Automatic annotation (TrEMBL):
This is Phosphoglycerate kinase. Belongs to the phosphoglycerate kinase family. It catalyses: (2R)-3-phosphoglycerate + ATP = (2R)-3-phospho-glyceroyl phosphate + ADP. It is found in: Cytoplasm. Substrate binds at D21, F22, N23, R36, H59, L60, G61, R62, R118, R151. Monomer. Its main location: cytoplasm. Its EC number is 2.7.2.3.
Length: 405
């Protein structure tokens, strides 16, 4: 059933809790890509213009369920304030007396940003008490955090059980419209490129995606786990040791289904994880290549870049989530840059999803040549799987009796 959207709410004079995904990349306290903040602006402006008293909440990174200044949303409040051209009061707590006082003093058209919801153990546990406290006196809830809509957490799912009405914002609406439309029956060959660092989060999704995709190109830390599962020597690379059996299962599954599952033929190695470090490519693994002792696979190798690019050239649809290497440092960025460029040059429908992947697309100036940049990485993959995202499924159904207008 269709879900309520912000257009269906009468927000004038009401306190509205809005979940956004302000999980933006930070370097030395500076935001390196504000795309996720910019993407939330239409809904924020719409609610403020409608006279709401707007309380924004988000997570940032993966703190250990307790306050950690490295994951504070304070710099985000500053940036949001600049983008909106109006004061955004930052509240250094998400619940409790300080948050309550700040919320009680709001006037219509005011906006505050609460501190990182993941500073509280109740968030990821989806604890009803935490959800209730977070909702506070707000009766309306708006979710526009597409990037986190695949998580059933207190601020995405839990709060909907206590709000009178829960609606989606324009960002979620736009993402669903595009992604559901393009990914339900993707034009073939359909290539999924996966990389990045969240291996255990995303490895399970791979088997399910085999029903839809013809080819998988695997890079980043994700590839290390598969290469290790194949028995190759990966030195000191980032590997998820407890996922090796699962990786083998996925490889066998792909073979049985006739799905092309392409691991990097070679990898780029560094002996030191630092900016400006020297790197070299291994020989192809099939020819006895290996990562030397103490070395780290930090990017896909030159032969892998060549093979991946050729496959991208012939694709009709490509979904890319997860950088091919640690692209944040120029010395480890070649694979991600060249794959981004191959995608930009291809005539395929190209969808890039994920906070860091979109940051990479922007860094390598290919963003405008892609068909769609999604703010969600894991979320877009789960959508492709055909799942109802918990943050969307929990919103109020649209029906004549629950419409306010
Ligand atoms: N070989 C590697 N070793 C270690 N880290 C890697 C490697 N390759 C990529 N990474 C890191 O992966 C991170 C991004 O992974 P991530 O899975 O978060 O992608 P994403 O596009 O942000 O998706 P999501 O939105 O789901 O988080 C980057 O910060 C990058 O440095
Ligand atoms: O960057 C993301 O994919 C979202 O913000 C969700 O973050 P998470 O994977 O830490 O839940
Ligand atoms: Mg990320």
């Amino acid at each position: 059933m269709a879900k309520l959207t912000v257009r269906d709410l009468d927000v004038k004079g009401k306190e509205v809790l809005m979940r956004v995904d302000f999980n933006v990349p930070l370097k030395d306290g500076e935001i390196t890509n504000d795309a996720r903040i910019v993407a939330a602006l239409p809904t924020i402006k719409f609610l403020l213009d409608g006279g709401a008293r707007l309380v924004l909440c988000s997570h940032l990174g993966r703190p250990k369920n307790e306050p950690d200044p490295a994951f504070s949303l304070k710099p985000v409040a500053v940036r949001l304030s600049e983008l909106l051209g109006k004061e955004v009061k930052f509240v250094p707590a998400a619940i409790g007396p300080e948050a309550e006082a700040a919320r009680a003093s709001m006037k219509d058209g005011d906006v505050v940003l609460l501190e990182n919801v993941r500073f509280y153990p109740g968030e990821k546990r989806n604890d009803p008490e935490f959800a209730k406290a977070l909702l506070g006196n707000a009766t309306l809830f708006v979710n526009d955090a597409f990037g986190t809509a695949h998580r059933a957490h207190a601020s995405t799912e839990g709060v909907t059980h206590f709000a009178e009405k829960s609606a989606m914002g324009f960002l979620i609406e736009r993402e669903l419209e595009y992604l559901e439309g393009k990914l339900e029956n993707p034009e073939k060959p359909f290539v999924v490129i996966m990389g990045g660092a969240k291996v255990s989060d995303k490895i399970e999704v791979l088997s399910k995606l085999m029903e839809k995709a013809d080819t998988f190109l695997i890079g980043g830390a994700m590839a290390n786990t598969f290469l290790a599962a194949e028995g190759y020597d990966l030195g000191a690379s980032k590997i998820e040791g407890d996922k090796l059996d699962l990786a083998r299962e996925i490889l066998a599954n792909a073979k049985a289904k006739g799905v092309k599952f392409v691991l990097p033929a070679d990898v780029r190695v560094t002996m030191k994880f630092e900016d400006g470090a020297e790197t070299f490519c291994t020989a192809p693994f099939a020819e006895g290549g290996k990562v030397p002792e103490g070395g780290m696979a930090i990017d896909i190798g030159d032969k892998a870049i060549e093979e991946f690019s050729a496959i991208i050239k012939d694709a009709k649809t490509v979904l890319w989530n997860g950088p091919m290497g640690v692209f944040e440092m120029d010395c480890f960025a070649k694979g991600t840059k060249e794959i981004a460029e191959a995608l930009a040059d291809s005539s395929a429908i190209s969808i890039v999803g994920g906070g860091d992947s979109v940051t990479a697309a922007k860094k390598f100036k290919v963003q405008d040549k892609l068909s769609f940049c999604s703010t969600g990485g894991g979320a877009s993959l789960e959508l492709l799987e055909g799942k109802v995202l918990p943050g969307v499924g929990a919103l109020s159904d649209k029906c004549c009796c629950c419409k306010q207008k």
